[in-house]
Design brief:
The chain has helices spanning 9-16, 20-28, 47-61, 66-73, 79-110, 114-124, 128-142, 152-158, 169-182, 185-200, 212-229, 239-253, 261-275, 278-291, 300-311; strands spanning 36-37, 43-44. It is mostly helical. It is built from 15 helices and 2 strands. A hairpin with a 5-residue loop joins strand 1 and strand 2 (43-44). Helix content is 66%, strand content 1%. The longest helix has 32 residues, at 79-110. It has a two-stranded antiparallel ribbon. The protein starts with 8 loop residues before the first helix and ends in a 6-residue tail after the last helix.
């Protein structure tokens, strides 16, 4: 045909590395039709058949089905569209495999039982909407009745875990433990009581108030240096720190100018003691892992120190 070199099926097999049977199958299905036939009826293929076979093999190795390949060859659909569609499908498969790897790695690390592994897989594979529902239910219970508080939106955002699409094993493990904490009704009740009490302390004109993260950071800022310096809670060196904490809390209560130390010291000590729940520290640590934030230092030492420093200074009647 116009001097074009034609190849037998055997020649095509040697040039492409496919079997004669595979090439014959592609010919029979019309994916790679013969260019011509000999007088005896033997199939002959031109150079373009080699290119078609190479494309077919590549598409098959990428997992594209024969029906779609046939449409590409017949130009019913574009190769670009097919590639884009399958790239999206492969991306989903990659995410699923990474998630499974993360779950299995976490299970191996924890030495989990089969039941724990099943729970971990179930929690890890929740959809984004399902995870958000679990989070909203927990935070809704903790901050029930406080939606109108000026700090509500910022505080809930700061306490919301966001598991990435391709989590690391430690993020899967942290998310599963967080999900377990979400369902700890005693922990919910403790945080709810803490939030209610501190919100109730807010002065009418205070736009931030004493919700737990806000008061906690005030304690951390005032006490960290004293802890590092080894200042004892009942020492004279602790006096200005206790005074500053009490003044800060008095401003929250709406009485910055003058306040009764018996009331302020005792009330603040009660609040800080209430906040000193190890599950709260654990929640914040897990939250940082899931969200890829820097690990927070434990607030427990600062809360313990502050509570002791306040209680030793509560004036007796």
């Amino acid at each position: 045909m116009n001097g074009e070199t034609l190849y037998s099926i055997g020649d095509l097999a040697r040039r492409t590395g496919l079997t004669v049977k595979a090439i014959r199958f592609y010919a029979d299905t019309g994916i790679v039709p013969p260019t011509d036939r000999t007088s005896a009826g033997y199939r002959r293929y031109g150079a373009d058949a080699i290119a078609r076979i190479e494309l077919v093999r590549t598409l098959r190795e990428l997992g594209i089905d024969l029906a779609t390949i046939r449409k590409v060859m017949d130009r019913e659909v574009s190769l670009t569209d097919v590639a884009a569609t399958h790239a999206e499908a492969v991306e989903v498969q990659i995410r699923v495999l990474r998630q499974r790897r993360a779950v299995l790695t976490a299970v191996a690390r924890r030495g989990s039982t089969s039941r724990e592994m099943e729970l971990m897989h179930k929690l890890a594979c929740l959809s984004e909407a399902e995870r958000q529902c679990l989070i909203d239910d927990f935070l809704g219970a903790v901050f029930d009745g406080l939606h109108d508080h000026p700090a509500f939106a910022a505080v809930t955002r700061s306490l919301t875990p966001e598991l990435p699409e391709d989590p690391e094993p430690e993020q899967i493990e942290a998310w599963v433990e967080l999900a377990e904490l979400f369902q700890d009704h005693d922990f919910r009740a403790t945080l709810h009581g803490m939030a209610q009490d501190l919100a109730a302390d807010r002065a009418p004109d205070d736009a931030t108030g004493g919700l737990p993260p806000i008061l906690a950071e005030a304690v951390r800022a005032q006490v960290t240096q004293a802890l590092e310096a080894g200042v004892e809670p009942d020492s004279a060196e602790a006096e200005p720190i206790v005074t500053a904490l009490a003044a800060h809390y008095a401003r929250i209560l709406g009485s910055p100018a003058s306040y009764d130390p018996r009331v302020v010291y005792r009330r603040l000590a009660d609040r800080l003691e209430q906040m000193n729940d190890p599950r709260r520290d654990r929640y914040l640590s897990l939250l940082a892992t899931v969200n890829g934030w820097p690990a927070p230092g434990s607030l427990a030492p600062a809360l313990t120190w502050s509570t002791a420093a306040l209680r030793t200074r509560i004036p007796q009647r």
